[in-house]
Amino acid sequence: MSLFRWVIRPYLYSQYMFQKLARKGTFGGDQAIYVKTAYKNTGNGLKDGLFRHHVKQFHEASCSVASVVSVVNTLLDRQGHLNGTPLCQQDLLESVRTAHWKERMSDNGYNGRRGLPLQTLGQVVETSLKVYGISYQSLETVQASRDPIKSRKIKDRLRARLEQFETAGNCLIISHFDQGCFVRDLHIPHISPVGGFDPESGTVTLLDVDPSQECPYQVSFDLFYKGLSSNYNPIFRRFGYGEGGYVFIRV
Question: Which SUPFAM superfamilies match (predicted)?
Answer without folding.
Answer: Cysteine proteinases
